Amino acid sequence: MLRAMRDAGCYYLDFGVESINPSVLRRMKKQITPEQVQSILKLSYDLGFKTKVFFTVGHIEETVSQATETLRFIRKNKRYISRIGGGVGINIFPGTEVERYAMEEGLMPEGFHWSKPYHNEENLHFSTAPSVPILVQPQLTWRELHLMRRRHLFQKLRDPEVIKANLQKLRGPAALRRIKSLAGGVLGSGKIKSTDSKRSG
After folding, report:
1. Contact, 55 vs 74, CB < 8 A?
2. pLDDT 10s digits, 139-162
3. Does residue 66 contact residue 23 with C-beta atoms inside 8 Å?
4. Positions of the chain with pLDDT lower than 50, given as ranges
5. Residue 199 three-state SS
C-alpha cells in the first residue's frame, strides 16, 4: 500500500503511535506492536516518505520507566522520523475513558466541575489550555511530568524543522509566554526518580 501511495504522489505521512510500551498500548486499545511501528517507519523511510510521528506521555497507569521506553525508541529510530509530534501531559475531556479513570481514582482537581471555571497556569508549561485538567497520577506526578517533558523537548529540539516552526510562533502577544515556556523546559534540571509503584488504597 505504501508503494502505491508513493506512486500516486503521496510524500508525507502522519503516524499516531503515542507509546511504544506494549502494556500502555493495550490499555489504550491500540492494536499495534513496537515491532510493527519500527518496521513501518523503516519502510516509509526506505520508500522516501517524510514522516511526522506523534508520541505522548502521561497515559492511564503509565509509569516513568514505560514512558522512558518511548523516549528511548524515538532516539534509537530518529533517522526514520522526519518530525516528532505530540508531547507530555494527557488532557481530561468530558465523556472520555481518561475522565472515567480520573473520577474513579480520585484524580480530578480538587473542587473541579465542568460547569465551573477552571484555570491552572501549570498547563502552560505543557502547551495546553489552562482551562482543561491534565491527568496527574501517583506514579506520574507534576514533577515527573515536567522532567519527562524536558527530555521530550530536548529530543524535539534536535530537529531543525521543529526549531524553525517554534521560531515562527514567536510573534505577537503570546511570544513572551512561549519563550518563557521553552526556556523553562530546556533550562530546568534534576533527575527523574522512578515511582513505578501504583497508588495503594
Report:
1. yes
2. 999 999 999 998 888 776 666 665
3. yes
4. 189-201
5. coil
DSSP-derived secondary structure letter, 79: G
- Residue-range domains of the chain with CATH: 11-187 (3.30.750.200)
DSSP-assigned states of every residue in 96-128: SHHHHHHHHTT-SPTT--TTS----GGGGGGTS
**Maximum C-alpha span of the chain:** 56
What is the distance between the alpha carbons of residues 20 and 15, in angstroms, rounded to a whole number?
Answer: 13
Distant-in-sequence, close-in-space partners of 191: CB < 8 Å, separation ≥ 6:
147
Q: How far is CA 45 from the centre of its chain?
A: 22
Report DSSP state, residue 137.
Answer: B
Listing from the earlier edge strand, what are the strands of the sheet with 50-57? 12-18, 50-57, 83-88
Amino acid, res. 107: L
Q: What is the mean pLDDT of the chain?
A: 85
- DSSP state at residue 140: B
Under 8 Å between Cβ of 84 and 156? yes
> What pLDDT is attached to residue 40?
96
